[in-house]
Amino acid sequence: MSERSIGTRVVIVLAAVLALFLFAPAWAAGDSAQDIVAKADLVRNAQKPFRATNTLIEYRAGVPQNKNVLLIFSKIDPGTHQFFNLVRYIDPPRDAGKMVLLGHLLWFYDPVSKTSVRISPQQRLTGQAAIGDVLTANFAIDYTASLLGEETIEDAARTPRKTWHLDLKAANENATYNRVEYWVEEGSYHPIKAKFYSDSGRLLKILYYENYSERLDGVRPGGAVIIDAVDSSLVTTIDFSDPKYQDIPDVWFQRDYLPHLNVQ
Description:
CATH architecture of the largest domain: Clam
Distance between the termini: 81 Å
Strand order of the largest sheet: 6-5-4-3-2-1-17-16-13-12-11-10-9
Low-confidence stretches: 2-28
Order of helices and strands: HHEEEEEEEEHHEEEEEEEEE
Helix content: 10-25%
CATH class of the largest domain: Mainly Beta
Mean pLDDT: 90
Structural class: alpha+beta
Largest sheet: 13 strands, antiparallel
Number of helices: 4
Number of strands: 17
CATH topology of the largest domain: outer membrane lipoprotein receptor (LolB), chain A
Strand content: over 45%
């Protein structure tokens, strides 16, 4: 083999190695699957205590059926790095004043009877939305992630997005779902899409994050669309509005204090 031929091959190999370093995906440069999920958590959730209003509308074949408005207070538990949540029902009027508390356990509080009962995060809230779907949560705490590959998918607005396709398995009993397929945009770490599965492995629903905008010191999703896995005419939208930082006393996340709470 001539020196010229050897030199040409060396140049080709060096160019290929350089291209590998320049264009390799983030996971190859150091991000594990768990890192990707944790960075997507930072996109979805502010890290300082905050409040926001969630408006959920259930649709059947495009026709609105039910509407729920919830006021949600969220604060990170320094011990677990997961969020405490206090959810207060605002609308409809028949439910106003009811609350859901996620401290170390999940409780539903009825102001009429002044009693609280344990509930599951999979309990239906309205339409395709479960209680767990409106709680602020860090997926990297509740799930163990593995990378399935890279995939270009359409987001809620049918815009193509190059994503990491991840598989999340429940890591503890606080996880709302046994398994989640999760698509996170490369580079921005914006969550794009999720599929949620039951304990038996049945696909329950498909969720798209949408309406990214500047809020709470970061570009975050402003809403989500949840589609029933069996009947795609059943859709629930969630609008995340009026987010703001707020000092939240730890006592708000104690079950015994619920009868004394009067938050607006």
